[in-house]
Amino acid sequence: MTPGRLAVAVLTVLALIFVFENTQHTRIRLLVPEITMPLWTALLAVGLIGWLCGRFVARK
User: Fold this and answer.
1) Which residue of 23, 24, 45, 51 has the smallest Cβ count within 10 Å?
2) Which residues cross the membrane (predicted)?
């Protein structure tokens, strides 16, 4: 376990704690439609999209 991997693991755990602590419902508007969903779902989806974009950029 390198220091870099340990830091990523700690940040991942902290991000997941943050996501799952925010369980209230919120309204989200993406261009036109407005939907109501739990905030943790929106945070997790944005985190996943960011992770995928980072993987794509790092691969190039």
Assistant:
1) 24
2) 39-58
Helix (H, G, I), strand (E, B) or coil at 60: coil
Total tally of structural domains belonging to the chain: 1
What does the angle CA 9 – CA 40 – CA 29 come to, to the nearest 5 degrees?
130
**Tokens at residue 23, please?**
């369980």
Cβ(19)–Cβ(43) under 8 Å? yes
Half-sphere exposure of 21 (CA within 13 A, CB side): 6
- For 4-15, how does the pLDDT look when each residue is reduced to its tens digit (9 = 90+)? 899 989 998 998
Cα 56 off chain centre by:
16
